[in-house]
Structure formats: structure tokens, C-alpha cells
Write a structure and sequence with these properties.
This protein is an alpha+beta fold. The protein contains two helices and five strands.
């Protein structure tokens, strides 16, 4: 007889995130890799101890939102401050079945506009300390590549 879980994805998502006291909790080092091409780095660029050269190191907490991370990236890259610049976020993590890395799209923000993913946190997307964050930056004059979230069908 097979047992089946009665917990649904909605119930898992409803589990409230524990608030983080930033005064008492030590921040984590978040290694962020950016591209200005509008596309994420390939997973194989993280293989065998290698990482892309465009690294930012940010000290933050697990409750950091995508909008908060966007503002930190804009401090470093003035060209990304233009209204309408699109930021697409992906977590890069080691594949548990092998020696490769995998990318998981987690959301996007747009400079100067409010969006549905603005308040999304690293913790809510199951980011683990040691994972990387890959951000594809698309200038406002170029449309971001269609992702599975944005398909019109």
C-alpha cells in the first residue's frame, strides 16, 4: 500500500516566513553574477570551481527581497538605473545528482516600476547559503527574452 502526502503546495507556501532580526542575525555573503545581455549565464560556466568574471559580493539576509537586491545592483552599475531596466533573477545551485550546476528562475523586477515579484525573498525561493544568484540585466530599449512566466499563451 502506497502512502500519499496530504500536504498541498498551497499549504507549503502559506507557511509564514520567520522574521529575521537584522540587528541580531549575522548577514550572509551572497555571490551575485550579472550579465548585460539580457540572458543568464550558462550553467556550465559554474562548473569545476569556475565562476563568471562579473561577480558582485553582497552581504545580506535571507529575507532580502528582489527589489532590495535590485537597488544594491543599481548602486554598482549606474547604467542599470535607467527607468525600465529589466532584472531577471535565477538561483544557481549544485545539482544533487552530479557535479554540474543548475539554474532556477525565481522572478524579475523592473527599475522604476512596481511588480509582482518585488517582495519575493531569497528564503521564499528556497535559497540556501552557498548558492549563487545570477541576474540578467536588460536595458530599457531592448525587450527582455521571453521566459516561461511571460509567455502570452
Amino acid at each position: 500500500m502506497a502512502l500519499e502526502s496530504r500536504i498541498t503546495q498551497e499549504e507549503i507556501k502559506k507557511e509564514p516566513e520567520k522574521p529575521i532580526d537584522r540587528e541580531k542575525t549575522c548577514p550572509l555573503l551572497l555571490r551575485v553574477f550579472t550579465t548585460n545581455s539580457g540572458r543568464h549565464h550558462r550553467a556550465d560556466e559554474f562548473a569545476r570551481g569556475n565562476v563568471p568574471s562579473s561577480e558582485l559580493q553582497i552581504y545580506t539576509w535571507m529575507d532580502a527581497t528582489l527589489k532590495e537586491l535590485t537597488s544594491l545592483v543599481k548602486e554598482v552599475y549606474p547604467e542599470a538605473r535607467k527607468k525600465g531596466t529589466h532584472f531577471s533573477f535565477a538561483i544557481v545551485f549544485p545539482d544533487p545528482r552530479g557535479k554540474a550546476y543548475r539554474l532556477k528562475d525565481i522572478g524579475s523586477t523592473v527599475s522604476g516600476r512596481k511588480g509582482a515579484d518585488d517582495s519575493m525573498t531569497l528564503q521564499s525561493q528556497r535559497f540556501q547559503i552557498g548558492d549563487y544568484l545570477d541576474i540578467a540585466i536588460t536595458p530599457p530599449n531592448r525587450a527582455p527574452p521571453l521566459s516561461t512566466r511571460m509567455r502570452p499563451f
